[in-house]
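Please predict the structure of the following assembly.
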Amino acid sequence: DSGVTQTPKHLITATGQRVTLRCSPRSGDLSVYWYQQSLDQGLQFLIQYYNGEERAKGNILERFSAQQFPDLHSELNLSSLELGDSALYFCASSVAEVSTGNTIYFGEGSWLTVV
Amino acid sequence: AQSVAQPEDQVNVAEGNPLTVKCTYSVSGNPYLFWYVQYPNRGLQFLLKYITGDNLVKGSYGFEAEFNKSQTSFHLKKPSALVSDSALYFCAVRDLMEYGNKLVFGAGTILRVKS
């Protein structure tokens, strides 16, 4: 158990809908990361937050947005869903904002299926 | 940009034999390298990391990795494979961004250990 908690574990929704994925980081971790894992794209970095503020952005679609709340939990919002958004979405956390040596720990992911 | 490559899609090894999963990296500056493992329907689990120091890094579940600067490699090894080691293995490198950081992952290598 990494200590990173993600909900829901599985989600099935229709095209055009909106979903919210939730993440609680490890106790004491201030950075939260979101990744998307799909068969064709592999593991893709979406976005990083540190202590409530956006810090780094990757290949995140405009239809997707995220935020980190004062209690440090984070949510990833996916809207106008398309079939191609079906993937495993990972949340991860680490202690520092930018620390080359710190480990990033991953949750078990949220499986999103868009039908 | 920082990147890693895993040249083998799949590695097959007999139980009890040594295993190696290969990873090569391309970085500007000092490399910060990681190995993660993903079991079926599970999240990414941290195995080990190289930050600095000894070229042989020991990690979880009896795994170790050898950092080789001249060959720009960071191969994952285990002296004696177990069937339970069968999983998907990812090599990753830390990429520092303007205000944050991320991990850049390889495509992954499926390890199959046969009894």
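Chain A touches chain B at residues 2, 4, 31, 33, 42-43, 45, 48, 50, 55-56, 58, 90, 92, 97-101, 103-109 (CB under 8 Å). The mean pLDDT of chain A is 94.
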